Amino acid sequence: MEGFGAGKVILLGEHSVVYGHPALAGPLSYGVTARAVPAKRCQLSLPGTLSRPQRALLTRAFQRVATLCGEPGVKVTLESELPLSMGLGSSGALAVASTRVLLKAAGRDDSPQEVARLALEMEQEFHGTPSGVDHTTSALEKLLLYKRTPGQSTGRLKVLKSPRPLKVLVALVGDRSPTKHTVGALRERQARWPERYTRLFKQIGTLAAEGAKAVEDGDLEALGDAMNVNQGLLAALGLSSPQLEDMVYRLRGLGALGAKLTGAGGDGGAVIGLFLEPEPAVKKLLDDGVRCFSSQLAGPRAL
Ligand code: MEV
C-alpha cells in the first residue's frame, strides 16, 4: 500500500502568506512516497543515516497522525525525491504521504481534504504554526491561490485552471536554510518595524492575486513579471542571498519569463524560473553542474 505527497513551489507570496496575504502555489511531480506493510503495531521505520534528534522529531510527528488514524497495524517506510529544507515542501510532502497511507491502511476516508486536515498535525510538529500552504498544496495536488485564516494553519483557497501549460525549472543553490529560522528572523524584523514590513507583505499579496488572474487569462508574460517584482520585494525583506540572486539572473538570461527564489529563502534553497519550454535551460544547467529539474504545475499536458 502506498501514499504519495507532492512537493510544492510557491510562484508568488511566500512569507507574506504567513501574515494572512494570498499566495500562489502549485504541486511538483516529485515528492515523498510512504509505503506500508502489515506489522504487529503501527510504526515508522527510519534509515540509520538520520541523526538522533531527526529520528525523534519524525517519530513524534508520525505518532501524532498514527493516533488520529486509529493506529493501523502497519510498518511505514518513506522514500523522498525531494531535497530537505530547500524550499520545495519536503516536510509537507512527508506529512501528506504518511497521513495518506495511514488513512488507507485504516480503511478511512482518504480524500485530499481529509488528508490535508490530518497532515497538518505532522506539519505543526515540524514548523510550529505554518501558514498551511505547503501541506495543502501537497494534499490537493492543484494550483492554488491560498489565503491563511488568521492565527490558524488552514485557510481559504481557490483552485486555479490554467489554459496554458505552466512549466517551471527548479534549481537548487547552496546549503539548506531551515524554514523555522528564516520565518523567525523575519518575524523579529517585522515586530521591530511593523508598518514598513506590513506594507511590503501587502504588495506581495497583491502580486499573488494579480498572478492568479494572469494564470487564468493565460498571460504567462504577466505572471513572469509578477514573479520578478516579487523577487525584488523578497530581497527587500532580507530573504535572498548573493547565490540565490546569481541563479535568478542566470535563469532570466536563459529565457525565463520570470524567476525568483521559492519557499523560505535564506542563504540557499530553490530558485524557480517560469519557461515556455524549460528543457534546453535544464540541459545547459545540468551540463554546468547545477542541480536542477523541470516540472509542470498546471495546464494541458502534451499527448
Ligand atoms: C515555506 O514553504 C513557505 C513560508 O511562507 C512559510 C509558511 O507559509 O508557513 C516561508
From TrEMBL:
Chief location: cytoplasm
Localization: Cytoplasm
Keywords: ATP-binding, Cytoplasm, Kinase, Lipid biosynthesis, Lipid metabolism, Magnesium, Nucleotide-binding, Transferase
Pathway: Isoprenoid biosynthesis; isopentenyl diphosphate biosynthesis via mevalonate pathway; isopentenyl diphosphate from (R)-mevalonate: step 1/3
An example Gene Ontology molecular-function term: ATP binding
GO cellular component: cytosol
Annotated ranges, domain GHMP kinase C-terminal: 213-281
InterPro entries found in the cross-reference section: GHMP_kinase_C_dom (IPR013750), GHMP_kinase_C_sf (IPR036554), GHMP_kinase_N_dom (IPR006204), GHMP_knse_ATP-bd_CS (IPR006203), Mev_gal_kin (IPR006205), Ribosomal_Su5_D2-typ_SF (IPR020568), Ribsml_uS5_D2-typ_fold_subgr (IPR014721)
GO biological processes: isopentenyl diphosphate biosynthetic process, mevalonate pathway
Highest taxon above the source species: Bacteria
Domain GHMP kinase N-terminal, chain residue ranges per copy: 57-140
Stated name of the protein: mevalonate kinase
